[in-house]
């Protein structure tokens, strides 16, 4: 585990997922991807936005042994109970797609009442890209090109963005 930034708090965990786990997650998501949505600031409902142009889907919590094992590993790494975690979301960014800088917490009262603000966000990279695809923390120094099986942890209220990819993440 390498500390990348203290403000926001960001760590890189090389080898968090095995290549087999990465491939399994991609396979689970591949035929179920839909346009990614964002939470509406007033209602908390999912809405389309040009802020986020990827496609994605949510896995069911502990939907199989591999997903359950990954969720338990996330819980151990973040020191947070697995039952407090959200369902894993799989995203694909194709050429020119993005998620603009944002804060990873909820502005709306609906989501705050459902589970409250996020304490941590864990980003897991499922495939390699030669150019683009990095996560940028605008309030921190530098950026790092992520590799398959790399995982990030970050302070949700400091904001991050995913830059446009030159190659697709999920093949």
Structure characteristics:
171 residues; alpha+beta; Jelly Rolls; four-stranded antiparallel sheet; 3 helices; globular; disordered C terminus
Task: Write up what this structure looks like.
The chain is α+β, with helices and mostly antiparallel strands. It has a single domain (2-162), classed as Jelly Rolls, CATH 2.60.120. The chain has three helices and 13 strands. The protein has helices at 19-29, 65-78, 109-114, and strands at residues 2-5, 10-13, 34-35, 38-39, 46-47, 55-58, 89-92, 99-102, 121-124, 135-136, 143-144, 151-154, 160-162. It has a four-stranded antiparallel sheet with strand order 1-2-12-9, with no helix packed on it. Strands 8-13-10-11 form a four-stranded antiparallel sheet, with no helix packed on it. A three-stranded antiparallel sheet has the order 3-6-7, covered by helices on one side. The radius of gyration is 15 Å and the shape is globular. The two termini are 28 Å apart. Mean pLDDT is 75; it is low at 152-171.
What string gives the helices and strands in order?
Answer: EEHEEEEHEEHEEEEE
Number of domains: 1
Structural class call reads alpha+beta
- Count of DSSP E strands? 13
At CATH's second level, what is the architecture?
A: Sandwich
Give the mean pLDDT.
Answer: 75
Q: For the report, how would you describe the main beta sheet?
A: 4 strands, antiparallel
Oligomer: single chain
Low-confidence stretches: 152-171
Termini Cα gap: 28 Å
Shape: globular
- In the CATH hierarchy, the third-tier topology is known as Jelly Rolls
**What name goes with the CATH superfamily?**
q2cbj1_9rhob like domain
* Largest beta sheet: strand ordering: 1-2-12-9
Strand content: 15-25%
Helical residue percent?
10-25%
Tally of individual helices:
3
Given this structure, which CATH class is correct?
Mainly Beta
Pfam families: 2OG-FeII_Oxy_3
Protein name: procollagen-proline 4-dioxygenase
Keywords: Dioxygenase, Endoplasmic reticulum, Glycoprotein, Iron, Membrane, Metal-binding, Oxidoreductase, Signal-anchor, Transmembrane, Transmembrane helix
Family: Belongs to the P4HA family.
């Amino acid at each position: 585990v390498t500390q990348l930034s203290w403000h926001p708090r960001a760590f890189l965990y090389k080898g968090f997922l095995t290549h087999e786990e990465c491939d399994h997650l991609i396979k689970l998501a591949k035929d179920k991807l839909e346009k990614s949505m964002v939470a509406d600031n007033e209602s908390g409902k999912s809405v389309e936005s040009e802020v986020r142009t990827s496609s994605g889907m949510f896995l069911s919590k502990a939907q199989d042994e591999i997903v359950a094992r990954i969720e338990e590993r996330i819980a151990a790494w973040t020191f947070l109970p697995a039952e407090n975690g959200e369902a894993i979301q799989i995203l694909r960014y194709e050429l020119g797609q993005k998620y603009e800088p944002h804060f990873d917490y909820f502005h709306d009262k609906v989501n705050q009442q459902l589970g409250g603000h996020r304490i941590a966000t864990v980003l897991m990279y499922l495939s390699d890209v030669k150019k683009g695809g990095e996560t940028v923390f605008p309030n921190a120094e530098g950026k790092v090109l992520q590799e398959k099986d790399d995982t990030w942890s970050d302070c949700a209220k400091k904001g991050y963005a995913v830059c446009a990819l030159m190659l697709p993440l999920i093949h």
